[in-house]
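FAQ: What does the model actually see?

It sees only this:
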Amino acid sequence: MYLIGLTGGIASGKSTVARRLVEHGAVHLDADRLARRVVEPGTPALAAIVEAFGAEFLRADGTLDREKLGKRIFGDDAARARLNAIVHPAVRELSGRLIAKAEAEDPSAVVVYDVPLLVEASVDHPFDLIVVTNAPRRTQVKRLVEERGLDALQAEARVDAQVDNTARLAIADVVIDTDDTLAHTMSQADALWARIVEERSRA
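And it is asked to produce this:
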């Protein structure tokens, strides 16, 4: 198995790169989706969140009100740390199981684990390669406004709430520049796949 950690700031093109690698045959795991799974009704993580923050963060159907909780922790470092201490280990355990499952099903699988918070959450899976998608702040803000409907202030706050790009770039084995055309991003993803295929043929 070949394990890629894919990370990058919000609206930096991670999904585009992940989709392209999947087209080439990679298995895609999305940390954001896993973070939703580990807080579904009946999970230990959801029970721990209710214990830490209160039942007012549950909707009537028993699911977590992510938006309300997001507002509660936004700008409150201690609350965010408390939430992360519940969610991150649960995601780590689930992702570990899914990576092992992918390897059991196909020992030669290329697994792309898409982790926005790879740096912040200190994700420590044994990655063969860490790939960082990189776009300047102005591009990230523009995309959030144009593609996700945020206003400029909201968009800037979302970008600024994340770890600085230099911290991500410091751990990168490969940087994919997504500030140019979609075709330019795709060609870099294609080159990455070609590199992986070549590396594995020599192994």
